Amino acid sequence: MRLGLIGLGRIGAFHAQTLADLDTVDSLVVTDAVPAVTKEVAERIGAEPVDSVAELLAAGIDGVLVAAATDTHPELVLAAIEAGLPVFCEKPLARAVTDAVAVARRLRESGVPVQVGYPRRFDPAFLAARAAVESGELGGLHTVRSTTLDPAPPPAAYLAGSGGIFRDCAVHDFDAVRWVTGRDVVEVYATGSDRGEPLFTEIGDVHTAAAILTFDDGTLGVVSVSRGNPRGYDVRLELHGTADSAAAGLDDGLPLRSLEPGVTFPAGPPHGFFMDRLATAFRAELAAFTEVVAGDRPSPCTVQDALEVAFIAEAATLSLREHRPVPIEEVRASA
């Protein structure tokens, strides 16, 4: 299989190496807006460098991965679709929910498969969490808690163009809780704090945030996210039901220090970043995309999935700004 990869920043370069290591990928064509980056990555992993997106799309590839800046996602995805090529697009589909709706409409008309990048769907513990819900072994769910704590904020330039903590960071939690529970969110109430760091105030964002989600069956979701957790990268999911409770993310790399006397869990070292915490998930996610390209499976994370997550993120952003609960239907109608 011959694939093309657009965008070789932090996540793009990571994907490039993962793809190069997959047995199903025979050759990889790469490009980035910075020619020197294209050259360096191509030489390091043995990929074929090209100078432009147009050249990549015309290089006889079987599928395309989009890992460029968020603002370019709509045009790049649509260009690939117009070329008839299956697409893997890093989250989000678009920064603005109105753009995501417009892209989704075009994609539905095309019939070309698109997979959106939400790697927690491929993490072994999250897969087990979904299976526990589907089997009924937890009873009826009443509370779901999802956590994402980054060890340090991204660069200022990235933050300024990210769309805010709910659209950029918490979307992984929003997707995870929808996917694991199999339920839709109907209302969001969100709050946040800049923690006294002027950068976040200047760009109209927050450093730490929380959201209360109400699902269509009455289950409550609690999402907690932060741009700064010096102990490490913390990704967890808790499921509390009428018969049992379970959690994903409670391994020895959990970046929490127990204060209970005699307790040695977690043994550490703490996870340093998403690339080590979710390495297995990323590999499985891209392997799944090769199956989508081959026509062996449908997209495991569809455009409609990404659109529903975008509605939740938009509702949380609006709730944070206006200090009120926001129904998802309000956001859906305005999009």
UniProtKB/TrEMBL annotation:
Keywords: Oxidoreductase
A Pfam family that the UniProt record links to this protein: GFO_IDH_MocA_C3
Residue intervals of the Gfo/Idh/MocA-like oxidoreductase N-terminal domain: 2-118
Stored InterPro entries: Gfo/Idh/MocA-like_OxRdtase_N, GFO_IDH_MocA-like_dom, NAD(P)-bd_dom_sf
Signal sequence range: none
Domain of life: Bacteria
Domain GFO/IDH/MocA-like oxidoreductase: 126-245
PANTHER family given in the database record: BINDING ROSSMANN FOLD OXIDOREDUCTASE, PUTATIVE (AFU_ORTHOLOGUE AFUA_2G10240)-RELATED, NAD(P)-BINDING ROSSMANN-FOLD SUPERFAMILY PROTEIN-RELATED
Family: Belongs to the Gfo/Idh/MocA family.
Protein name: Gfo/Idh/MocA family oxidoreductase
